[in-house]
Amino acid sequence: MRLAIPLVCLCCLQLSTICYAQAITLRVKNASLKTVIKQLRIQSDYAFFYKSDYLKQAKPVTLDLNEVPMAAALSKIFDQQPFEYVIKNKTILIKYQAESLQSDHGKNAGKQETVRGRVVDEEGALTGVSVLLKGTAKGTTSDAEGYFSIDAKVGDTLIFRNVGYQEKGVAVQTNASLQIFMEKVAKGLDEVVVVAYGTQKKATITGAIASIQTKEIKQSPAANLAVTLAGRLPGLTAIQQSGQPGNDGVALFLRGQGTLNGQNPIILVDGVERDINYIDPNEVENITILKDASSTAIFGVRGANGVVLVTTKRGVADKPQINFTSEYGIQQFTRVPNYVNAYDFATLRNQALINDGLEPKYTDDVLEHFRLQDDPERYPNNDFYAMNTYDWAPQKRFNLNLSGGNKVRYFVNAGFLDQDGQWKVDPNKYGDPNLDYDPAIFLKRYNFRSNIDADLTSSLKAALNVAGYLEKTNGPNASLLELLAFTSFPAVTPGPLTPDGQVIVPTADLGNPISTYGLINRSGYQQGTNSNVMASFSLEQDLKFITPGLSTRLMASFDTRSNYTLNAGRNYRRYYATVLYGEVGPDGKEPIRYDLINGSENQPLSISTATGFQSFANFQWFVNYNRTFGDHTVTGLLLAQQDQRIVNGDPLPYNLRGVSTRLTYAYRNRYFTEFNAGYNGSEQFKKGNRFGFFPSISAGWLISEEHFLKDNPVVDLLKVRGSYGAVGNDRLGGRRFLYLDDTQRGGGGYSGSLGGGNKINESFIGNPDLKWEIAKKANIGLELGLFHQLNLSIDVFNENRDNVLITRGTVPDINGLPIGALPPVNIGQVKNHGYEIELNYNKSFNPEFSILSKINFNYAKNKVVFADEAMRPTDYTYPYRVTGFPIGQPFGYINDGFFNTQEEIDQYASYNIGRAPRPGDFRYLDVNGDNIIDERDQSPIGFSNIPQYTFGAAFGVNYKGFDLSVLFQGVLNVSQYFDMYDQQGGNYFSQALESWTPERYAAGSPINFPALSTSATASQQVNTYFLFRKDFIRLKNAEIGYILPHGWSEKIGASKIRFYANGMNLFTWDKMDLKAFDPELGSRFNYPIYRIVNFGVNVIF
Amino acid sequence: MVLYGCFCLYSCKKDPLDMTPNGRISLDKVFSDNDLTASYLNSVYGYIPLYGASYHSQSLLAAITDESSDANAGIIGGVLSTNWYNGALSANNLFAMNWYAQYWQGIRQANIFLDNIETATVNDPKNRSRWRGEAKVLRAFYYLELIKQFGGMPVQEESFPLDFDYTTLQRASFQEGVQFIVRNCDEALGEPDLPFRIQNPNERGRFTKAIALAIKSEALLFNASPLWNPENDPAKWENAAIGCKQALDQLVSNGYALYPDYEAYFKRESDVSNNPSDKETIFEILNPDNMRFIFVTQTIPSLAGAVQAGAGPSQELVDSYDMKDSGQPAILGYQDDDHLQPIINATSGYDETKPYEGRDPRFYATIFYNGAYFSNINGTDHYIESYVGGADGLMPTVNSHTHTGYYLRKFIDTDLRQGDGIISASKWKKYRLAEMYLNLAEAENEANGPTSTAYEAINAIRKRVQMPDLPPGLTQDEFRDRVHRERRVELAFEEHRFWDVRRWKILSETDKQVSGMRWIEQGNGTFAGSRFVADHRNAWQDRFLLFPIPLSELSKLPAFEQNPGW
After folding, report:
1. Residue A431 pLDDT greater than 70, yes or no
2. Predicted pLDDT at A1069
3. I want to staple A1012 with a disulfide (CB 3.0 to 4.6 A). Which of A135, A352, A615, B125 is the partner?
4. What is the DSSP letter of A469?
């Protein structure tokens, strides 16, 4: 039972011919059918499927064909053969002629037989297709190679169902093998995409929308769903700014930044605003982003920043399917700081002291000891980063889900994530019996979800989604910032422990006497328990008794989240260690003096707790209408909703209400128009100003459905679409009720004798005229499909954000209100424009070999048009620092090399920016030419920390049981200033080894760092030298999988077993000079970004 | 379908978008309630700076004067002293010295309070008078602190309306500012129910007529000083002399008097009663009383728990103490710019090899020098070892040891140990009677020469510490020099020197560097001392006489003139 394997190389050759109409020329005499088929393959890009033993029964072929179409050629070739053939797309199936088998039909009727067969689509074998015997509960699924067997009688009907394919019913006519060809529905014009509060056929979409499916999401082993989006969706920028387990800071931007206020898109999970971060990727069916006014106007006052829709999986009527996944991953920091060793540190510190005209601290003798490392107790070489972090940490993940059902359909999922952190806990507690707790960093998250759909009557459906998680975190009783900051101790610092096991902290001149080791191992522990339940119940009633196509739906959702944190802290003994260089102890070596830090002593744990609670209730009422009258199709949606959110830490609930509508009209499936509008109110505004109407219109023309293009072999899709509309933003930087004064009586007044010790806090002066921001968005899109293989989609957008709510920048302090209390006004203006290009290429050479690629390239650039910024005096080169520049534009000095001699300094413009320059300091450009270097010379340098260009490129190959996929992700035009000088108490980065010295300058050695100093220098101004371009391309994800042959998996009763390995952040190519930090990392003191290499197995029963 | 109904009911009941009531009130409500009106006055008090050890990393303002060299300077990046010595002050960055906005906030709230107090609901009519008086003194206080630092500012008696057009707002002169301050103080002094002294401990820290007098005295003195009186207008000095005299006389006649023990005075909290033991303190900073614990960590390294040495007194300060017996200055000046060669007053009795013998008692109350008795530490009497290599030895590269050879003694309770809790509640004295004497002595001398009034004022200060009276017959210049010395010594480390060298316009003479004394052990318990430069500074140019108006402010006030040099 093997299929012939088409030759890969032949297929490749075909690529060059696919552009031409396929004509066949054949001159054969008594040739075998096999030879003929081979010739056909050479001359066309058709694939042939047949059982190899069929051809043994073929008759020899004699033919003379000249440039005839394939169909004609086939009919001639098979004229005399005992086979029939079926052409499906570019695939030709060859099977026995039905009539030659019909003769057996009568005697087999009604007899119980095992029917075998195979399910394929144009790309090859289809796994997991459910095969049901109609009218019974009997069923099976196809195996990894598409085969199935089921007990059935001739005359029975088998129903084949697979998600994304058209259901197919096939009558059993013989006991022969069945070849079932299934057609995708999720292809081309019939593909259904998720839109706001519903779904629409892709062909009819007139807005700018992009989406990804489960399969792509699961190629990333990231613990956080938001991380998996990076590079996948055109128009979405996802930046992982921290890698902290349970707290990965992923910033999402849709089409860059469009406002000076809150820029987060709203995120809806199954139609309700919810958190994306904690969702198990196995639960997700689809993630869709809505980018333009047409797709977001329905969200009205909340839609201006775009919308992310997450749709979870639902059960389909099917035989129960059990899906089990187990994964084990290894996490590793992508970058670690490149601190110097003890010898280099001591040498560089001496160099700094000499530069400052001070005595070097380390004598040659001491340096030699550091170099030789012959006495580590007195001359330590401590890498505090390595000392306190593991090389890698494991991440485990298990998932079990069940789906199926009939009138009641279910998708039930349980997931477990176990992620360890990389802070190293010392397994040896040095005999301290008090330490009976575990400060190890880990995150354990238990997810569950149960999505149930039930057909209560023929016209009433109900759905219940219940999902949630329980999350346990553990770690030392220390802040991340502290842990990271104290890994930068100079390598010469003794530690981590005294000979009798007490913590050593760095000497007094380093400021704060704690150590990372002490924080992890001695400071106590912290436990968090977070739990969350999300529930939605909906009823949908078909109202066709009123008029056909009318239905209504009601949905009520209720979510809660609670947090509990337990802090168990303790004081512990800490010492300064001082090596008394120059003195001699009893053992003939320098004595080490240990001075107890005053007030530090070993104490038992003391416990405190904190709790938090959030809840969210949402009601939605839909009326839907969908009907086709001849050439005219109309749909309508009317939605009313109201919700209330109680947020942890904010005493007042957030309320929202509004109605939305979507009306669409299509004519002959070629011309589409849509009207979307939201009318909703925000509590941010005064009664009367509260409700706003946000309309959008859009239109599309599906040119490829016109008669002049229809059925042409080259262009299978050509569509143009455009939209224009207004969307609002009421997210005004976290502050609330801005139309009201906030004057309150508070405690803590100056004198207890006045007003009972209270005072009056005028925290805010309201602006009763306040309104929402308005984003006026225009979008033009073009979609092009060629040869059923290549799809190109281009969107160009322009956005003008008016009424941006800002605090006036021209009100001086003299007015006596702190900036935060000033009433904001709707006067800001921001422009944003850009484009997205998406290119997909899918090619299936035969059922067992296919490739796919998906490339997106995006650009968004914004400009602040008006921000009420006070103009600096005219002698400033740039009188504005915000107005006229992109949001977040950094300003600083333009670097012009180093000062190499005092004469150069004397002849150059004078510095008025702190300490006078010395040889080895940066020479900054005197931009305004006044011969003084000062604030007046500050210029826009680099880019903001949100990239202007983002791109992603995914490639995949399937070959037999193997699959391989990769995703490259990249960003361009993004900068960040890394202050590398905050090291007077810390270690040097290895760049300092190439710092300026007179010797290096004289020798012409490379110089990569300004002259060292023990205090602030003129080089420590924000300048171009240390403004790093954070552009990068990285192999974001890669996955390789192998599906075991069916025979093997069958032995354990599974229909499919797939082994795979995948990874995240595997390789990075970037422009950062400082390889100490990942280019995505938001700040030096964020938890480092990690890479994961992950191994997993997926078993489907 | 029933649910539809519920939904409608729920949503129609009331507008859910109205704010859930949370206790917000309007200003009208505030001033129609006695307690809330009083609470508003509490808010007006909320902008008084901390002073004392609060200038970034618990530093003292003295750390950026020629009184001391800060041990943190150059070692801890970003602290005030490091930046200051580097001359890094700019209109973009005022470091820990930016109270510009804070003062204006205080002035705004005082203005709003004064706008409303006449019509506000006040249960006791006496309170209306008292509260009005307090708000006026507060307004004068914020104004004086503001214009001392930044120069003349618009005189603002009402809060700015929200739509005020700032583009044409101009600065007023320093003189106009002082007139406004004096008017506010005078009006407060005329309030029948504003007390002269707080007698009820609950009311500790409230403003009084005594404070109004102190503010007036200081404001008039500043107005007449060279910085604000470059043409040396005698009328300004005349005014100052009269004002200072009036202030002192009224204070004395209302029971204010010098506290007998100079050293102990700074280590205690003033007591509040109708007849307190501390009759000297006019205004003590109320909150937080941080002075009491800071000097447990900011002291000599021999004391367990010490973290930083803080501001080490300079040799220049040491040199300015007179000899006790002769009453004469020990050092008259320096032969060189680095202050390494002192001009010794041969007739004073000063011996450069034994510089710490026979000095003004205030020297011993202010400065720890090599060999000075500190206190009993862990059962042993500890004498300061500030010689090179000593336990408290001079170490210019760490911040836990002195950079000058001296440690601060003033304010420090040497018996206090870390963990002792609050046993010594010393608080910062913002105004005390001694300043009023010195203000008068200076103003009187400048206006009328060294009259008996001037002599009496300065000798009152000296008498308290058993220093001989100034010799009679001094010229006006000689008397001026003695007043300047007296002020420096009496008010050392009390945030006067910083402003005095500015108003006297002698910054370029005093602030280029400070020196210290390096003692080297010679064996057999003797030490040899040599003067050395502790730090060089780059903040002595004329532009440092005034702070720059913050750039962010200046760009919003196009008609404002920046201070010279910025």
Report:
1. no
2. 93
3. A352
4. E
The predicted-structure confidence for A147-189, as pLDDT tens digits, reads as follows: 888 888 777 888 888 766 777 888 887 766 777 878 765 455 5
From the list A509, A756, A873, which residue is nearest B400 (CB)?
Answer: A509
pLDDT tops 90 at residue B551: no
* pLDDT value, residue A659: 93
DSSP H or E segment with residue B513: strand B513-521
Q: What is the pTM of this model?
A: 0.76
pLDDT at site A640: 94
Q: Can you give the pLDDT at residue B188?
A: 98
CB contact under 8 A, B24 and A934: no
Burial classification of residue B186, based on how many CB atoms lie within 10 Å of its CB (0-12 exposed, 13-18 middle, 19 or more buried): middle
CB A843 within 8 A of CB B529: no
For A573, A752, B42, B154, B289, the CA distances from A749, given in Å and listed in that order, are 39, 7, 5, 29, 15
3-state secondary structure of A838: strand
Interface test with A, best of B123, B555, B557, B561 (most A CBs within 10 A): B555
User: Any idea how long chain B is?
Assistant: 566
Alpha-carbon distances of A884 from A259, A890, A948, A1027, rounded to whole Å: 13, 13, 16, 21
Mean pLDDT of chain B: 91
CATH topology for B195-286+427-504 is 1.25.40
Domain residue limits, chain B = 1-55+97-179, 59-96+305-426+512-566, 195-286+427-504
A687 contact residues in B (CB cutoff 8 A): 15, 17-18
Element holding A115 (H helix, E strand): strand A112-121
Shortest Cα distance from B227 to chain A (angstroms)? Answer: 24
Could you please report the per-residue DSSP string of B52-85?
SS-SSTT--GGGGSTTEEETTTTTSTTSHHHHHH
Give B 51-110 residues with CB within 8 A of chain A.
74-78, 82-83, 86-88, 90-92, 100-101, 104-105, 107-109
Mean pLDDT value of segment A771-778: 91
Quick: pLDDT tens for A202-233: 888 899 999 888 888 888 888 788 888 888 99
> What is the token pair recorded at B82?
């490091």
Residue whose C-alpha is closest to residue A912's, from B275, B455, B160, B87 = B87
Identify the band that residue A145 occupies on the pLDDT scale cut at 50, 70 and 90: confident
Task: Judge: A508–B399 Cβ closer than 8 Å, yes or no.
Answer: yes
Do residues B65 and B81 lie in contact, with contact meaning Cβ atoms separated by under 8 Å? no
Nearest residue in chain A measured CA to CA from B33: A755
Closest to B129 (Cα-Cα) out of B183, B186, B190, B211 = B190
Instruction: Tell me which chain A residues have a C-beta less than 8 angstroms from the C-beta of B169.
Output: 814
Q: Quick one: DSSP state of residue B170? A: -
Q: Tell me which residue in A740, A749, A765 faces B42 most closely, judged by beta carbons.
A: A749
Residues of chain B numbered 319-358 and touching chain A (CB < 8 Å): none
Check A509 against B10: CB less than 8 A apart: no
Same fold, B1-55+97-179 and B195-286+427-504: yes
Q: Which residues of B touch A554 (CB under 8 A)?
A: 3-4, 7
For A958, the 3-state DSSP assignment is strand
Size of interface A-B (CB pairs under 8 A): 232
The alpha-carbon gap from A577 to the nearest alpha carbon of chain B, in Å, equals 15
ipTM for the complex shown: 0.91
Q: In this structure, which amino acid lies at residue A1077? A: F
Interface of B with A in 531-550 (CB under 8 A): 538, 550
| Interface membership of B46 toward A (CB under 8 Å) | yes
**CATH code reported for the domain at B1-55+97-179:** 1.25.40.890
Smallest CA–CA distance from B26 into chain A, residue: A743
